[in-house]
Amino acid sequence: MEKKKYYITTPIYYPSANFHIGHCYTTIVADALARYKRLDGYDVFFQTGTDEHGQKIENKAKEAGVTPKEYVDKIVYNAKDLWKSLGISYDYFIRTTDENHEKAVQKIFNKLYEQGDIYMGEYKGLYCTPCESFWTESQLVDGKCPDCGREVKEVSEEAYFFRLSKYQDRLVEYIDSHPELILPETRKNEMINNFIKPGLEDLCVSRTSFTWGIPVTFNPKHVIYVWIDALTNYITSLGYMGEDDTLFKKYWPADLHLVGKEIVRFHTIIWPAMLMALDLPLPKKVFGHGWLVINGGKISKSLGNYKDPREYIKEYGVDALRYYALREVPFGSDGVFSEENLVTRINTDLANNLGNLVNRTISMNNKYFDGIIQSGEFREEIDKDLVDSVKSLKAEVEEKMEELKVSDAVTLIMDVLKKCNKYIDDTAPWAIAKEEDKKERLGTVLYNLLESIRVCAVLLQAFIPTTAEKIFAQLNTKETNFDSIENFNGIKVGDKLGIPEILFQRIEEKK
Ligand code: ME8
Question: Helices (DSSP H) in 148-259: which residue ranges?
Fold first, then answer.
């Protein structure tokens, strides 16, 4: 049977030498979703990349005394290095300076121009350079950019426009009939009430005030607006308007665009309207997540609360950081990142609940049975709750993952591990071991624990893959697929366990 496809994207990031934990957040969540879908048997295409054109980059390159291309080349390397250290399993990394992307964007622009969806006009307006966004007077907050609070400047120039207004009614109709397109619900209402209903204006889609962008082929003093360039990444990467569109035919429409809340507007208004103009299907879901903030404020170098995410990885390990990002913030809401909470999570969830459980279970089986896995046939009533919870865990996790409630999914797994710890306290294997005629029962208690740990590790592969691997090695099992967790019998009687090793060291709480 042909596998079902799943196309998931992160935004393409502005190249930066200072990626912070907030940037990692979207990508870690997307990675967990991609890994989960792969384990669940989907043919996944997971894409990320960098958004490299625009005035901001041109200015920064000038300051640094290099060409824009030299400037971005250097920092794109930084993004790839960061994703590697976080274990991000992307299938494709797009750069908007890739030649095939640039050519396809030009073709898209030409097509829209030829069919009358793009026309020449004059732009007068207020522009925020850091956000690459145009605003109307009424959208400003205290006369400043409503997104970043910085000064906007008046710009007047001959420019091309995209007929966004033409798509207003179709867009409202589409959003109404596709309740899953914009999630969470609050963001959908915000888009409809604050942006679409007041009336969409045509969008200025070219610039002449700078040159670092993709030129309009038939009027090259214009470069294409960076958001038009950027949004199309989701299809140019698949070969749309390119030499080979096999991937496009296979993977489009995207199943999920994961984006931060401040760019939902671009992904749920401009992008769908462009796709309608191109006569292409719309993405199935756009999910706008909240921000990670530090002490209630933005993460920024100038505020002195910035730390390179690789420093956390060096100090606490990659899975600790991944776990924290996935577990701490209910996906969708804003959340506070704090190193103190990270340490608390490591100690309570990873070192105690998970690590200690794995360690003492394997140690007990080594001590009482020389590491050999015993039969799990000698069940008693007290086992039922744990075994049932483990059997239903996959379906419950799946439901949460479908709703993109990643934090809830991780919590469900952690709750089963808690149950395992309680099961040890309730059954007291060390006491059973003292009774000569209870060897078989002792074997079953340990079997139940080992199999429960294995099932949790199979599911944890999506979230903390390095740790899951370590658990499999300690359990000495090759049964790591989702298929193996249905019947509570994946761990094999007669096999010998590996050597128990500490998964997470407790960390001394910092004041
Ligand atoms: O917006 N917490 O790029 P970008 C959570 N190039 N997420 C955060 C965050 C934080 N503190 N800071 C940033 C762009 N992000 C465009 C996208 S897509 C066609 C073009 C998230 O580098 C932010 O919300 O400014 C966004 O989703 C992503 O990082 C990239 O932001």
Answer: 168-177, 185-190, 226-231, 233-236, 246-251
For residue 272, cis peptide bond before it (omega within 30 degrees of 0):
no
Say how many C-beta atoms besides its own lie within 10 A of residue 5's C-beta.
14
The rounded Å distance from CA 25 to ligand 1 centre is: 9
- What is the residue with the minimal CA distance to atom 31 of ligand 1? 13
pTM beyond cutoff 0.90: yes
Helices marked H in 191-332 — which ranges? 226-231, 233-236, 246-251, 264-265, 271-277, 309-316, 318-328
Alpha-carbon gap, residue 191 to 145, rounded angstroms: 18
Give the chain's domains with CATH numbers.
Answer: 339-485 (1.10.730.10)
- Our answer on whether the CB atom of 329 is closer than 6 Å to any ligand 1 atom is no
* Whether residue 12 has its Cβ less than 6 Å from ligand 1: yes
Distance in angstroms (rounded) separating the CA atoms of residues 48 and 30: 9
Residue 82 has φ and ψ, to the nearest 5°, of: -65, -45
pLDDT, tens only, 260-297: 999 999 999 999 999 999 999 999 999 999 988 887 67
Q: How far is the CA of 260 from the centre of ligand 1 (A)?
A: 6
The phi-psi region of residue 332 (left if phi > 0; otherwise alpha if psi is between -120 and 50; otherwise beta) is left
